[in-house]
């Protein structure tokens, strides 16, 4: 491919003198109470944090939420949680998820500094489920709350990454006169349940 | 005239800015809106105890990456390919557009959804595809708004910041059938949600930009708030990710630095709602990564302007710039406006964009907010030198500087000129002093002419003591 | 007794001699032996500001010749001092005397605080004062921490002023936004320049200032021009004038 060879050659030719990568070890933030900070951060981005001692307690907490109570079409990928009635694997295309009211998905870790949850979406039969749903519930073990992104990325590096994302609160936009609107094109609400 | 072509013609920033300022209420409204975003950035950054260390790290990672860019690009290509992605290389905008079109036409795709990519704006991709029968829907709300108005975005992060909600309401009434006179942002956003959802469901391919490309893992990372990039890449089976070569970063771990800086700098949020990491296509799908040069390698060679290749397109420099706030993105005549645009645009076409490096008071605020520590105001100043060197400074200005230089070199001449000004100016009729040729005097009084110079005052002081 | 070469910005020399006088008196009051090299003209910033570096070089040469021998060089201007400290190396790098000159050239307030280490300026200035943070002084010389960076807050100019008896430093909505002078920018981009200046003035007025002060007469000249055209009830005074008046040196 001529484009490739030429591009690599010109980048080599034009490169400045090599400088070493910086030391990142002094970076990061530590919170006295990461779980409390997580809840604060999530609230700040328009989400809600629930604490539950175990899955049954989580089930009871979710039952209180209007988004869960009123949901007619539900996907749940957390065994023992939620009244799922849509089987992802049975759908031939993700487009059939349009109209999904609620998705309950597991998260691998939660980040205290910014309210994010890491969702390994490579395991999802249809990736669109986390964004096409009207409402989103993410379930994370409380012990998997980390302080900051440095810790998060370090933890995630331990397993191979396919397709994954940090989700921080519900979708939002401020594109119209800087007025914050929660619920832009993805989920209108995001509830994170910390279990344990 | 093709609407996006408007962006590429030489713009006299001063003239365009004067027109913007002339609508005083609107200019102040625009200024306040962007100042508010700057303040949100301040709140977010001050909550991060290691903020300045993060900026050092980001600058260092980018500098290191640029010094080994070819090697990292090769590593990225190898990793991405091993994950099943197809990596394409484009030397310029024409090649980029042809590659994207070929991917679509080979698969018979005529409906494309796009999330934000400044690179594709730079390459004028939309009109290229539209001319070849592809319907392109910009799915970022701000971008969709300007697309429906047939205008370019006026800000790289807040594309419709120049528009009032009533104007958007009118637009949506005409294009989406919303109620006449309705301007509530929530109502309008909801209407856009429904409209865009249809486009996502019907699209044959989704195109995104790339915020960061990780050499170590072969992954591309896309950061958004609305969910449009994720809708566009999880519904259609084909994902095309377009990136400039400078988007590369070496390692997975480096993402922590940038994801902690980006949203805080751009909008004052601790992180974007979605930070999606793509490694290879989804099962049954395709991932195409188009890597573009389009002048970046030339910029890499230039020791003066190479640092600005580190730009992560956060827009913080625009929000803090007192001139950008009072002149608006369209006054810059290029897809990336503001301080960073005033450096990148002349690099592309110095003659067309020669007014941009002078569209600055060199206050330095941009440099202090840049998350990757680009020395923006000094690069802007360096462009002024370059413009003079290339003979592009208008000759009256050049001549005035030469005359001034002579006066200032010879002390007797300098003293004479000052003495004349102090003696003569107070005697002249006001109409003459504040005539057409007095640029200073249009809205300002001249300083009152003192009776004596400092040297005279100094000599008197010495004589007394 | 420190020996100071007094560096007077060209517009102060020609249009605001009282600022130079105030500077001179302050320095002498605080124990300096001050000389004013009479051949000085201009630091060359109007040229470098316009990209005309060839025209600036002879002025840099002249400056070095005139000021090389002084223990300290002090100017009542942040932007002129920044020109010498930050932008002269392209002209004078390696020349004998330049390294010393670069390290020895100070803006007035930083000289009082950092070199003379004045504990305070004794005196009273019972007025409501708005401090305009001139950009070069703030971001090029780091006379203050600035609103953009996350660093421990400090401001040398504010420190000196706040010590004066009776002074009330008003709180601005935008504490360090540029006034819009910017050198040739003031004329080349006249519309934006004046809008910026008027916005600063409105901020000071709303905050209740009677006097607007700062370390750069260029900023103040621009603001004063707008103030007088619009007949706003504000007076501009350079910090040197404020301090000198407080110390009874006028």
Question: Any overview of this molecule?
Answer:
The complex is a heterotrimer of chains A (196), B (465) and C (250). Chain A is α/β, with parallel strands linked by helices and 196 residues long. Helices cover 26% and strands 23% of the residues of chain A. In chain A, a hairpin with a 7-residue loop joins β9 and β10. The longest helix of chain A has 13 residues. Chain B has 465 residues and is an alpha/beta fold. In chain B, α2 runs antiparallel to α12, α9 packs across α10 and α19 crosses α20. In chain C, α2 packs across α14 and α12 packs across α13. In chain C, the strands form two sheets. In chain C, strands 2-1-3-4 form a four-stranded parallel beta sheet, with helices on both faces. The chains are: A alpha/beta (196), B alpha/beta (465), C alpha/beta (250). Chains A and B meet through α1, α5, α6, β8 and β9 of A and α2, α3, α4, β1 and α8 of B.
* Low-confidence residue ranges of chain C: none
The tally of beta strands of chain C, per DSSP, is 8
CATH architecture of chain A: 3-Layer(aba) Sandwich
Mass-distribution shape of chain C: globular
Distance between the termini of chain A: 54 Å
Q: What proportion strand of chain A?
A: 15-25%
Number of helices of chain A: 6
The ordered string of helix (H) and strand (E) elements of chain A is: HHEHHEEEEHEEHEEEE
Overall radius of gyration of chain A: 20 Å
Using brief descriptors, characterize the structure shown:
heterotrimer, A: 196 residues, alpha/beta, Rossmann fold, five-stranded parallel β-sheet, four-stranded mixed β-sheet, 6 helices, globular, C: 250 residues, four-stranded parallel β-sheet, 14 helices, 11% strand
Short description:
The complex is a heterotrimer of chains A (196), B (465) and C (250). With 196 residues, chain A is α/β, with parallel strands linked by helices.
Topology, pairings included?
The complex is a heterotrimer of chains A (196), B (465) and C (250).
Chain A: H1 2-14, H2 34-44, E1 48-52, H3 55-64, H4 66-69, E2 74-76, E3 102-106, E4 109-111, E5 116-120, H5 129-132, E6 135-141, E7 145-146, H6 149-156, E8 163-167, E9 172-173, E10 181-182, E11 189-195
Parallel strand pairs in A: 1-11, 2-3, 3-6, 4-7, 6-11
Antiparallel strand pairs in A: 4-5, 5-8, 9-10
Chain B: H1 13-22, H2 24-46, H3 51-67, H4 69-82, E1 86-90, H5 93-106, E2 111-114, H6 118-122, H7 125-130, E3 135-138, H8 141-148, H9 165-176, H10 185-202, E4 205-208, E5 212-214, E6 219-224, H11 228-234, E7 238-244, E8 248-249, H12 254-266, E9 274-278, E10 286-292, H13 296-301, H14 316-320, H15 322-325, H16 338-348, H17 365-369, H18 376-389, H19 395-409, H20 411-424, H21 430-433, H22 454-464
Parallel strand pairs in B: 1-10, 2-3, 2-4, 4-7, 5-8, 7-10
Antiparallel strand pairs in B: 5-6, 6-9
Chain C: E1 3-6, H1 10-15, H2 17-29, E2 33-35, H3 45-49, H4 53-67, E3 72-75, H5 78-87, H6 89-92, H7 98-104, E4 105-107, H8 108-115, E5 128-131, H9 135-140, H10 156-162, E6 168-169, H11 185-188, H12 190-206, E7 211-214, H13 217-230, E8 235-238, H14 239-246
Parallel strand pairs in C: 1-2, 1-3, 3-4, 5-6, 5-7, 7-8
Helix pairs in contact in C: 2-14, 12-13
């Amino acid at each position: 491919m001529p484009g490739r060879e030429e591009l690599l050659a010109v980048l080599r030719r034009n490169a400045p003198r090599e400088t070493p990568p910086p030391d990142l070890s002094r970076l990061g933030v530590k919170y006295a109470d990461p779980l409390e900070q997580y809840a604060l951060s999530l609230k700040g981005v328009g989400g809600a944090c629930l604490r539950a001692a175990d899955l049954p307690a989580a089930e009871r907490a979710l039952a209180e939420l209007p988004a869960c109570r009123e949901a007619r079409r539900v996907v749940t990928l957390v065994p023992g949680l939620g009244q799922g009635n849509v089987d992802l694997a049975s759908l031939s295309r993700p487009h059939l998820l349009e109209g999904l009211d609620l998705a309950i998905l597991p998260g691998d870790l939660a980040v205290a500094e910014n309210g994010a949850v890491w969702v390994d979406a490579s395991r999802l039969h249809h990736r669109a489920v986390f964004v096409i749903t009207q409402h989103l519930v993410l379930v994370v073990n409380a012990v998997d709350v980390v302080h900051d992104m440095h810790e998060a990325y370090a933890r995630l590096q331990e397993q191979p990454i396919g397709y994954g994302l940090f989700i921080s609160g519900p979708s939002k936009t401020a594109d119209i006169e800087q007025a914050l609107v929660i619920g832009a094109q993805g989920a209108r609400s995001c509830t994170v349940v910390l279990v344990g | 005239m093709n609407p996006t072509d408007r962006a590429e013609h030489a713009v006299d920033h001063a003239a365009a800015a004067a027109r913007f300022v002339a609508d005083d209420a609107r200019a102040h409204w625009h200024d306040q809106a962007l100042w508010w975003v700057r303040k949100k950035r301040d709140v977010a950054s001050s909550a991060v105890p290691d903020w300045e260390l993060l900026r050092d790290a980001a600058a260092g990672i980018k500098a290191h990456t640029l010094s080994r860019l070819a090697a990292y690009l090769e590593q990225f290509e190898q990793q991405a390919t091993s994950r099943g992605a197809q990596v394409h290389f484009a030397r310029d905008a024409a090649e980029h557009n042809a590659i994207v079109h070929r991917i679509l036409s080979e698969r018979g795709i005529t409906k494309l959804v796009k999330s934000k990519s400044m690179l594709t704006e730079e390459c004028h991709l939309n009109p290229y595809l539209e001319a070849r029968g592809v319907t392109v829907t910009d799915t970022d709300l701000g971008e969709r708004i300007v697309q429906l108005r047939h205008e370019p975005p006026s800000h790289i992060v807040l594309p419709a910041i120049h528009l009032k909600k009533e104007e958007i309401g009118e637009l949506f009434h005409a294009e989406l059938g919303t109620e006449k006179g309705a301007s509530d942002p929530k109502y309008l956003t909801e209407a856009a949600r429904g409209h865009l959802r249809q486009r996502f469901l019907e699209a044959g391919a989704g195109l995104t930009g790339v915020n960061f490309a990780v050499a170590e893992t072969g992954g591309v990372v896309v950061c958004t708030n609305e969910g449009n990039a994720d809708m566009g890449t999880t519904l259609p089976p084909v994902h095309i990710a377009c990136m400039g070569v400078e988007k590369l970063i070496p390692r997975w771990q480096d993402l922590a630095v940038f994801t902690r800086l980006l949203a805080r700098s751009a909008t004052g949020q601790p992180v974007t709602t979605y930070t999606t990491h793509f490694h290879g296509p989804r099962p049954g799908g395709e991932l195409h990564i188009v890597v573009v040069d389009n002048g970046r390698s030339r910029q890499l060679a230039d020791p003066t302007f190479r640092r600005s290749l580190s730009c992560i397109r956060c827009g913080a420099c625009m929000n803090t710039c007192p001139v950008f706030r009072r002149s608006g993105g369209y006054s810059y005549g290029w897809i990336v406006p503001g301080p960073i645009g005033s450096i990148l645009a002349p690099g592309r076409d110095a003659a067309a964009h020669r007014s941009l490096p002078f569209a600055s008071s060199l206050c330095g605020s941009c440099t202090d907010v840049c998350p990757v520590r680009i020395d923006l105001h000094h690069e802007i100043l360096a462009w002024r030198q370059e413009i003079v060197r290339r003979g592009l400074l208008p000759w009256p200005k050049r001549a005035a500087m030469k005359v001034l230089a002579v006066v200032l070199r010879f002390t007797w001449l300098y003293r004479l000129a000052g003495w004349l000004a102090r003696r003569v100016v107070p005697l002249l009729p006001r109409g003459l002093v504040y005539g057409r040729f007095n640029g200073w005097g249009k809205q300002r009084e001249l300083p009152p002419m003192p009776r004596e110079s400092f040297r005279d005052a100094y000599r008197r002081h010495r004589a007394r003591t | 007794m420190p020996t100071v070469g007094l560096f007077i910005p060209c517009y102060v020399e020609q249009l605001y001699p009282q600022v130079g006088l105030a500077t001179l008196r302050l320095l002498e009051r605080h124990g300096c032996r001050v000389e004013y090299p009479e051949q000085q003209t201009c630091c060359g910033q109007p040229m470098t500001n316009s990209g005309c570096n060839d025209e600036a070089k002879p002025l840099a040469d002249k400056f070095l010749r005139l000021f090389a021998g002084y223990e300290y060089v002090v100017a009542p201007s942040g932007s002129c001092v920044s020109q010498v400290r930050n932008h002269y190396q392209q002209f004078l790098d390696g020349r004998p005397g330049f390294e010393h000159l670069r390290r020895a050239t100070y803006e007035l307030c930083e000289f009082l605080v950092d070199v003379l280490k004045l504990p305070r300026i004794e005196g009273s200035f019972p007025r409501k004062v708005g401090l305009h943070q001139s950009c070069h002084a703030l971001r090029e010389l780091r006379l203050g921490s600035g609103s953009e960076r996350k660093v421990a807050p400090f401001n040398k100019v504010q420190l000196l002023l706040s010590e004066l008896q009776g002074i009330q430093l008003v709180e601005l909505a935008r504490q360090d936004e540029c006034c819009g002078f910017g050198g040739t920018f003031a004329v080349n981009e006249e519309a934006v320049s004046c809008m910026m200046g008027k916005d600063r003035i409105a901020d000071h007025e709303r905050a209740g200032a009677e006097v607007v002060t700062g370390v750069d007469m260029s900023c103040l000249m621009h603001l004063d021009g707008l103030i007088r055209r619009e007949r706003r009830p504000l007076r501009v005074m350079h910090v040197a004038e404020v301090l000198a008046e407080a110390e009874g040196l006028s």
